[in-house]
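Human: I would love a firmer grasp of how sequence relates to backbone shape in proteins. Take your time, and here it is.
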Amino acid sequence: MFCPFCGNEDTMVKDSRSTEDGTAIRRRRVCTKCNERFTTLERVQTRELMVLKRSGQRVPFDKEKLIRSIELATRKRPISAEVIDQIANKLEKQFVDSGENVISSESIGRTTMEILKDIDKVAYVRFASVYSDFKDVKDFAEILQTMEHHDK
């Protein structure tokens, strides 16, 4: 590991700890040349998951983008950042476990909507309005009617 301060290749690990969710190891290091301390984060590298967008473009899966989308849908709702992270982790794991290297954006949207439907109906409708590109109030009425029918 190169020192980010002086570029020295020889650094020592002083402390290692798992992150709260257990998905990474945080290491405190010290450079043997300049004695500066820095932190590194070590994660298991899984195969790169690609997203097939509606335009046909392929882009790398971005969990942070998924988190931002869920945060927008759950804004001012009683859903903690921890729950949002758990949703994103669950979705990412589900996509990786599917064995597919390419996941369609439609599949990501549908799966996210299904999880949100069980957690918070308002967040579900908000997410659906963006994902499904609602054009007018009629689109909202249709999804609300579908939800009402499904809940009976």
